[in-house]
Design a protein that fits this description.
By secondary structure, this protein is an alpha+beta fold. It has helices at 3-9, 23-34, 53-59, 86-95, 103-115, 119-122, 125-149, 162-169, 198-201, and strands at 45-50, 72-79, 153-154, 175-184.
Length: 206
C-alpha cells in the first residue's frame, strides 16, 4: 500500500473479527517496530505477544474491555537497562560511519556544553526515562502503520494497570510497561476523524 494511503487509513479500531492473524503478519508488525529509531541505537523497546484467550480474559480486568476481543495483544515495554550499553551502541554507529563528516564538530560542541555546565540539564536521568517512552512511542506508531498496510487494525491503549499487567505476564522491574496494542481484522470501518489544518498546528516559522 502506498505510504500516504496507509497514514490516511489508520484508525483506532475497537472492534475486531474473531479471525486469527497469521503468524507471519505478527512477525512483520514486530519487524516494523524493530526498525524504529532510538537514541544511540540502544533499541530499548521490548514486546510481549498475547494470543492465549485465558490470558486475554485476565488482562481484561486491568484495561479497557475491547482489548480482549483482539486476536493478538502486544504489550509494549521499555527495557531500562538498555542505557547500560549506550556507549557500545554509539561506537557501533561510529564504526559504520553514521557520524561521518560531523563527528568532530559534535564532539567539540559537547565539550563546550560540558564546560558551560549545560550537559546535565540536557541529558539527565529524568530525561533518559522520557527517551525510553519516546522510543516505545515511535515503535508503536511504526507497528500501527504496518498493521494498516497488512489490512489489519489496532488501537493504542494507555489506560492500563501497569503493575497488575506486570504480575500477569511475569515481567521483572527492569521493564516498564508503556502501552497495549490490540491488533486484528477490523469488524467495522470508522469514519475519518476531523483534523486541524496545518495552519492551525503551526505555531510559527522563524
Amino acid at each position: 500500500m502506498e505510504f500516504n494511503e496507509v497514514i490516511k487509513l489508520r484508525r483506532s479500531i475497537r472492534k475486531f473479527k474473531a479471525e486469527p492473524i497469521p503468524d507471519e503478519y505478527v512477525n512483520e508488525i514486530l519487524k516494523a517496530g524493530r526498525l524504529a529509531p532510538s537514541v544511540s541505537n540502544i533499541q530499548s523497546t521490548r514486546y510481549l505477544v498475547i494470543k492465549n484467550p485465558e490470558v486475554k480474559e485476565k488482562l481484561n480486568e486491568y484495561t479497557v474491555p475491547f482489548v480482549k476481543s483482539a486476536p493478538v495483544v502486544i504489550v509494549c515495554c521499555a527495557y531500562k537497562k538498555a542505557w547500560n550499553e549506550q556507549e557500545k551502541r554509539f561506537l557501533e554507529l561510529k564504526e559504520i560511519g553514521a557520524f561521518k563528516d560531523f563527528y568532530e564538530e559534535t564532539k567539540q560542541q559537547m565539550e563546550i556544553l560540558e564546560k558551560e555546565g549545560k550537559v546535565e540539564r540536557m541529558a539527565n536521568p529524568e530525561i533518559f526515562s522520557y527517551y525510553l517512552w519516546q522510543h516505545a512511542a515511535i515503535a508503536i506508531d511504526h507497528m500501527m502503520l504496518k498493521a494498516v498496510d497488512l489490512g489489519l487494525g489496532s488501537c493504542w491503549v494507555g489506560f492500563v494497570d501497569r503493575e497488575k499487567v506486570r504480575e500477569l505476564v511475569n515481567l521483572d522491574n527492569d521493564y516498564d510497561i508503556i502501552a497495549l496494542l490490540p491488533i486484528g481484522y477490523p469488524s467495522y470501518n470508522p469514519a475519518p476523524r476531523s483534523r486541524f489544518s496545518v495552519d492551525q498546528l503551526l505555531l510559527k516559522e522563524l
